[in-house]
Specification:
The chain is 72% helix and 0% strand. The protein is an all-alpha fold and 528 residues long.
Length: 528
């Protein structure tokens, strides 16, 4: 069962009815836990051992960390007056070390589960190339299927533990509530990657039905389905046709396919986020915004501040910052001062952290070298941009290009979109070798031909019309959203006008959307 299936709509409707019954207010979080477990099972995951293990490790680790913090507070309150400054410092350092050990071992357990079930086969396969006689890939232990949502709840768990360790939030004393935080059904399969500090109050609180929340939630759900069913699902056959048989297409068609996939993936993933945010918002639980119109970005760095925001900020807060302040980064910075210009030398710790972050980002998406290459390429482009910024500014100055020049901004947006699209050769290929084959095909066999077979393969006339209409509406709404929240503009209209707008969008969804036995297919990012 996916969140865009008829089965889910019935499941969710029943949940909402029960959830807002007057006598259920005290038990709403329990109902959400039952619903989340049920959804997880119905979505195709009947193996709960991994998330149970992650929940237990998270719960125990967070409580041990908080006990150490309380121990320090209580001890210093009683004995600080009789202690010297060196003694206080020594005591704090000993507690800090104990907390560090607890945090490390908790993360080792949680991350270890992810590594075994998601990356075990990848690691074993690479070890077999070095030690052919080992045959590690044949071991059942390394052929386990990764359970649904493990990449998402693993990061949520680690982030929560690090926040407790730093004192940014208090640990949850109820293990079932800890389980709900990790298993909450709207975000378990594709995120957003929630923070305990943001979610706990709403997730475990009591909520009454709100028409305003219901109205806004329905707006987002309808808009999400529009992006998914009218744009993403209509474009998917065309994208698949190009990349499944790329040998039969020119480099021009393949590059068009990369651009099509960039649009399809955004419509699919952001559509999912809108749908689950709407469903969750109706229940009174706000999810983190995961997209902010990334195709209006003027650089690759800005694109990643607008795309999959919960993942980008997670890596920034819990990996990039610690790495850039770590001992290896500091040492590299010292070496850089001896051999590099002062400006670039200052960037060395950040560049070191950025490279590791993008390597990890690629690996997070999939246990394969093509995704690692995709991540590294993103990192290299951004690192190069940072290092060459003075040269770019010098060229802009010579050409008298102002930063607020509209033509220049449009050029930057187009350039960024083309870079993003070109990088799609890595996820769209079936292997690392296939990625280089696609790149070679694009550059070696690039000849422009404006025919239907070359530009829009496997696309019927009705599909073409539906996609064009969908993209025009999509672009118009995105431009208006850049100017301010769309729902605020909608709410300024009278009740009849608002409902005419809703019904018009619903009519277009019914007319142009792709329907099947389960409404539509699954979502692209569910595989991660």
């Amino acid at each position: 069962m996916t969140i865009n299936s008829l089965g889910f709509l019935l499941f969710y409707t029943a949940l909402v009815i029960i959830y807002f019954l007057p006598f259920m207010k005290r038990f709403q979080w329990m109902l959400l836990l039952i619903a989340s477990v049920s959804f997880y099972y119905l979505a195709g995951s009947n193996n709960f051992i991994y998330i149970i293990a992650a929940t237990i490790a998270t719960y125990i680790g967070a409580n041990l960390l908080e006990k150490k913090t309380q121990k320090q507070t209580e001890y210093l309150a009683e004995n600080k007056a009789n202690m010297t400054r060196p003694e206080i410092k020594t005591y704090k350092e000993s507690i800090k070390k104990e907390k560090h050990n607890i945090l490390v071992w908790s993360i080792v357990v949680i991350l270890g589960i992810l590594i075994v079930v998601k990356y075990g086969r990848f690691i074993a396969g690479n070890l077999d190339r070095i030690l052919p006689m080992a045959n590690l890939s044949d071991l059942t232990f390394f052929r386990l299927a990764a359970p649904l949502g493990i990449s998402y709840y693993t990061l949520m768990s680690i982030g929560y533990l690090m926040d407790v360790s730093k004192g940014k939030c208090q640990c949850e004393k109820n293990i079932l509530k800890t389980g709900l935080f990790l298993l909450y059904f709207p975000q378990i399969t594709q995120g957003p990657i929630g923070r305990f500090t943001d979610m706990a109050g709403n997730l475990f609180g009591q909520h009454e039905f709100s028409y305003e929340r219901f109205s806004y939630g329905c707006q987002r759900i309808l808009w999400g389905f529009f992006k998914k069913m009218v744009i993403a699902d209509r474009m998917k056959p065309m994208v698949d046709a190009i990349f499944d048989n790329y040998q039969n297409y020119s480099g021009f068609s393949i590059f068009l396919g990369c651009m099509y996939f960039a649009i399809q993936l955004y419509a699919d993933f952001s559509g999912y986020t809108d749908i689950v945010s709407g469903f969750s918002g109706i229940l009174g639980i706000e999810l983190m915004e995961n997209f902010r119109r990334p195709f209006f970005s003027t650089s690759l760095a800005e694109y990643w501040r607008r795309w999959h925001i919960s993942l980008s900020t997670w890596f920034r807060d819990y990996l990039f910052y610690p790495l850039s302040l770590s001992s290896p980064a500091v040492k590299l910075g010292r070496v850089g001062k001896k051999i590099l210009s002062p400006r670039v030398a200052k960037l060395v710790p950040s560049l070191y952290a950025m490279f590791i972050v993008w390597f990890a980002t690629g690996l997070w998406h999939d246990a394969s070298w093509r995704y690692i290459l995709w991540g590294v390429c993103n990192g290299v482009i951004m690192i190069s941009s940072m290092c060459l910024e003075p040269q770019f500014n010098w060229i802009k100055g010579k050409l008298h290009i102002a930063n607020d020049n509209k033509i220049w901004r449009v050029f930057q947006m187009v350039r960024t979109f083309l870079i993003i699209s070109m990088l799609k050769v890595f996820p769209m290929a079936v292997s690392t070798k296939g990625s280089f084959a696609l790149i070679g095909k694009i550059f070696a066999d690039f000849h422009i031909e404006f025919t239907k077979a070359a530009c829009f393969p496997e696309l019927g006339n009705n599909d073409f019309v539906a996609i064009i209409i969908g993209l025009v509406i999509f672009f118009y709404v995105s431009v208006r959203q850049e100017q301010g929240p769309m729902h605020e503009r909608i709410n300024k209209h009278s009740f009849p006008v608002r409902w005419v707008m809703y019904l018009a969008l619903l009519l277009m969804l019914v007319t142009f959307g792709v329907f099947g036995t389960e409404m539509t297919g699954g979502f692209e990012y569910a595989q991660y």
